What does this fold into?
Amino acid sequence: MAPNIMPVYQAVTDAIAKKLGFPAELVVETNYENCAKDVNDVCFVCSLPYIEFERQGKAPAVPIAAPVLQGERYHGKPSYFSDVIVRRDSKFNSFLDLRGHSWCYNEPLSQSGYGITRYHLVELGETHGFFSKVVEAGFHETSIKWVAEGIIDGSAIDSQVLAVAIREDPTLLQKLRVIESLGPSTIQPVAVSKRLPSDMRQAILDVLLTMHLNQDNRSSLDVGMVDKFVAVDNSSYDDIRSMLKACEEANYMVIK
It folds into this structure.
């Protein structure tokens, strides 16, 4: 998950610990193995790996809540966009203008950086080689840096991450332009391990649904431009499933 949203993850961790009366630790995983092994009790996880695990019958956690972001473009729903960025002084004015140019993404199991771009190319019928070069950056923040510095021509960035990055560094407005927005997609869930008792899962959900009412929590949520959390479930991510299915049917799983 994006480092610049970390204050929100920490606020959730602290709020749950305080309300339920036990210590809690925020762990930053470096791969998805521990998610599959059910090591952690509560996970902030991207929708694509969750769906992959669920389809394989290996999903150890279930989504219970997701954030609603601040801003009219989200219409009070747990959704987000993938904003396609280029350098402000570039010649690109649309996604199609990037044909034959370089592209970077954060990681291949990211819906915002990879999944929806792949789906968009399928929708366009551009599955035989669209970009001149495709590079994995590791994080959205790195993709933003590479595009701003002219190292890479374009990238799709989680709209929440991009908005926070611009707020933290307003000079990005002079370096970047958004030429298209892909989506919306249902935003990443907070998932709780199935091994936790149902009453504890409900208690965690109650904390998430009400934490925006606490002023201390409010400040932390504002850092990540989160308005509040709302309840979600497995079916909330059917839009991501449909996009993935379309890519599979087109036999187009690797962006090129």
